[in-house]
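User:
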Amino acid sequence: MTAFRPRLVAPASLTAVALTLAAAATSTAQPTGHSAPPPTAPAAAVAPAHAPLPAAVLYHTVKVNGLDIFYREAAPANTPDAPVILLLHGFPTSSHMFRDLLPILGTRYRVIAPDYPGFGQSDQPSRDQFNYTFDNLASVMSGFIDALGLTSYTLYVQDYGAPIGFRLATAHPERVRGLIIQNGNAYVEGLPDAFWGPVKEYWANPTSPEKRAALTKVLTLDATKWQYLTGVRNPARISPDTWTVDQAGLDRPGNQDIQLDLFLSYGSNPPLYPAWQKYFRDHQPPTLIVWGKNDQIFPAAGAEPYKRDLKNLDFNLLDTGHFALEEELHVIATKILDFMAQRVAPQKPAQPSKPTSP
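Assistant: Predicted structure:
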């Protein structure tokens, strides 16, 4: 992996670094239905000197409930109390989806991205040894959080990360400093029949071999490429490494049955939507939504209802697809840095030093 390196600029803050990167990107996020010129870097960001370098990404494994759980981590040097962002990935990917975001956010925050059992580099126990349900994945992630001693964090959730993350949030609301939501659903409006129809039929007929077999087409290479390329403006921006890595995971012996079990278990999530929505209303976590509006799995209709329940909300629909980071990395990184600095972990002003007595 080539480490992400910003242009040589000397902005006044890391947020300005990300903003400069966003301006340099070939695409920018626009409000739906409007057009605007690309943002420009602040005037202060002109004289190159010593631009902040990206944070190093470290790769670890920790035991959780007898399983080896792999995770990626980046953090600023010599800052043990840096605010934590916990990144929860979607299907069919892994912490690999955050590979380019980690070095950016890690310059200011402790950023941690685990792989669930059966995904990425974590253990893949057999189905007779591990029950592949969303309740169980959330239980393992809860154990992961405890194993790392995390007591306060912002949750970044995408796709499968949403039902896992919202289970964690409702179990321990006191730990959650904020939410970052990227194409992750908590409302029935976000499950269109065009994609979810066959899955809903499987929920209604869980013992049907035919309904289960009908979903295997979602696990093919063509379907994985479709998830990455549908709705993007410029397919040339999407690295083929993405679907190649994900498909290698799906093609492991036994993995496709694991994924079919999780398709069935996804039916346990909509009944929990009212509880998650109550959590939003009662606790009002600061929330950033960065949603690929052209997603055919979790379309923009699933993003809009969050406005009903969350008041401290920064809402953004981006002109891209399901895996928005692949095309809008710089825009999303900028949004996160601003969100964290302004709404979650604002920097305290330096206290003036007391004069010394003569």
